Amino acid sequence: MVYEVRFHGRGGQGAVMAAQALAVAASHHGFSAIAFPFFGAERRGAPVLAFARFGIERFRARTQVYEPHFVVVLDESLIESVDVLSGLRAGGIVIVNTTRSPDGLVLSKAAKSATVDATSIALQHTKRPTVNTAMLGAFAKATGLLAIADVEVGIQEVVGGRLGKKVADLNVQSARAAFEATRLGEADGGRVYPKSAKWLPTVYELPPGLATPAMETPAGLVGPGSSVSNRTGGWRVSRPILDESRCTNCLLCWFYCPDGSIERGSKAVAIHLDYCKGCGVCAAVCAPDAIRMERESVLEVKS
Questions:
Q1: Is 73 within 8 Å of 79 (Cβ atoms)?
Q2: Full-model pTM
Q3: Hey, which residues does 49 pair with through a beta bridge?
Q4: How far is CA 239 from CA 51, 169, 283, in A?
Q5: pLDDT digits 0-9 by tens, 41-96
Q6: H or E stretch including 156?
Q7: What is the per-residue pLDDT across 99-131, written as a single tens digit (0 to 9) for each?
Q8: What is the three-class DSSP state of 54?
Q9: Mind listing the domains of the chain with CATH numbers?
Q10: CA distance 25 to 145
């Protein structure tokens, strides 16, 4: 028996390292194992995939995982736009980072599910919203195929090998906490996914604040950046809070915002949260300290 795992995450959440650590954990348990990523032109925050296979018998498959036994979702907001259960085998399990209970999930079809608030656990133990190691603890709890001790070995080798033992120890604590907090159940089906939107926006469909000249192309006038239909604000863990009384309208935040989500005003700037990914650049460059970052309300983001 060879088990196949597909990780759905966003750039910067550590999906690739999670797959690698899972392979090491499976190897420590006695399985043959392999892990590999799928990379395109993604930037930080964009959807990414990573895969792992492990089993008692040796295998040669190196393709992407199209029919997984297990799906691990590092960011619940992906469920809104990606059918994470695509190809999931009968009896398979989906493991989701969310504050919801398993039966509170609505996916493309009914499936066994496990949920854990990995973001809060990661912030508590590592002080960063990088949830990969917490989700490995949840994977061990949900599947029962690996012991939490195996996961700890994987974290120490992969995370510790890159970031040092101190960081690895904090991630081990995160995995243990997630293992204990994971809830098991079944998700409902019925979610319908619309057809994908057009790829390139026109120059009139850019987020507010982004100034760019039109470009002549065979398809017409287009411009760089995200279209208004691609509301990247769902990626946030923290949001910027603007104190207009302190804003001097110096426009440093507008100039440095990587997503053009800040608009110039006559007296103060305005932040369009539909497109803000919560990177914190605006707060970092704000000279009068008019912008601060706060943890996103789970109910506001996920409702």
A1: yes
A2: 0.76
A3: 8, 38
A4: 31, 29, 10
A5: 556 677 889 999 999 988 877 889 999 999 999 999 899 888 999 999 999 999 99
A6: helix 148-163
A7: 999 999 999 999 999 999 999 999 999 998 899
A8: strand
A9: 2-187 (3.40.920.10), 203-302 (3.30.70.20)
A10: 10
